[in-house]
Amino acid sequence: MKNETIKYPKKILGILGGMGPAATAEFVNILIRQFPAPCDQEYPKIILFSNPQIPDRNKAILENGQDPTPYLKEGLLTLKKWGADFLAIPCNTAHYFIDSFISEIDIPLVHIVEATIKKAKIFSPEGAWVLSTLATKKTELYGKYAKKENYNLFHPDWDFMKKIQRVIDMVKMGNIEESAKDLKPLLENLWKAKNVPIIAGCTELPIAYKATKLPKDLIISSLEALAEECIEEVLK
After folding, report:
1. H runs (alpha helix) in 37-175
2. Handedness of CA 140, 143, 145, 148 (dihedral sign)
3. Are 226 and 184 in contact (CB under 8 A)?
4. So what CATH class is 13-110+225-235?
5. CB of 141 within 8 A of CB of 133?
6. Please, which domain of life does this record's source organism belong to (predicted)?
7. Do residues 24 and 50 touch, judged by C-beta distance below 8 A?
8. How many whole angstroms separate alpha carbon 31 and alpha carbon 77?
9. Cα 22 off chain centre by
10. Do domains 13-110+225-235 and 113-222 have the same CATH topology?
11. Positions marked active-site
């Protein structure tokens, strides 16, 4: 018999992860760390489907590589079949593809870009730099959602973003210290141009940023934004 004094969360979160694995692990860590539960039983049920074999989103957009859409759709439908009440994907670039079919998945998705713009508007009303994969930059994914919210984004040039892509790739390879070493001077130069926070619009970037030891009040993490929105959804 269940203990009636325990508040059991009713909603089950389904996470489609593996894009990349380190970012997925960090997302779950943030989610659990921030969830207001006094004991094991009051944490939410989570179904994690981590599939690193989903085709590369960057290559699909930039190099006409294999389309990840069928794999993303299959993953979300699998989570629904397994009993998820709502969904989250801790990968920004994947949402470019997900936007094309999400209406066919008839359970809610917590959208990482929408969540991040929402957090940015509160955290830095004057605007923010947006850093991401080259593919996310090319698709103007953040610009699209920022425009809906009348939020001001600042965009580094393509050459700068190539260096950010290298930082992202190093995190995916497990080279966290090296990624931080490269990221820190890039951000310091960026802030000389305009001293506003960065939106970490790729889920590997918060991992690199944390390792730089730079101030926490100069980053708007898409991982944290997604986790916060998921917690809100569980507690509704």
Report:
1. 57-62, 69-81, 94-98, 112-123, 134-139, 141-148, 158-172
2. negative
3. no
4. alpha beta
5. no
6. Bacteria
7. yes
8. 22
9. 12
10. yes
11. 91, 202
Q: In this predicted model, what pLDDT tens digit does every residue of 184-223 receive, in sequence order?
A: 999 999 999 999 999 999 999 999 999 999 999 999 999 9
Task: Give tens-digit pLDDT for 5-28.
Answer: 888 999 999 999 999 999 999 999
pLDDT value at residue 1:
38
- In DSSP terms, which residues pair with 88 in a beta bridge? 15, 110
Token pair 């698709």 is found at 139
Residue 232 banded pLDDT, cuts 50, 70, 90: very high
The answer to whether 179 and 171 are in contact (CB under 8 A) is yes
Q: Residue 4: what pLDDT? A: 59
135 burial type by CB count under 10 A (0-12 exposed, 13-18 middle, 19+ buried):
buried
Architecture of the structural domain at 113-222: 3-Layer(aba) Sandwich (3.40)
- Amino acid in the structure at residue 135: A
Residues with Cβ within 8 Å of 162's Cβ and at least 6 positions away in sequence, in order, are 134
Of 122, 117, 126, the closest CA to residue 95 belongs to 117
As a dihedral over the C-alpha atoms of residue 200, residue 173, residue 158, residue 122, rounded to 10 degrees, the angle is 0
Q: What are the extents of the domains in the chain?
A: 13-110+225-235, 113-222
DSSP secondary structure letter of residue 100: T
Nearest to 206 by CA among 175, 176, 231: 176
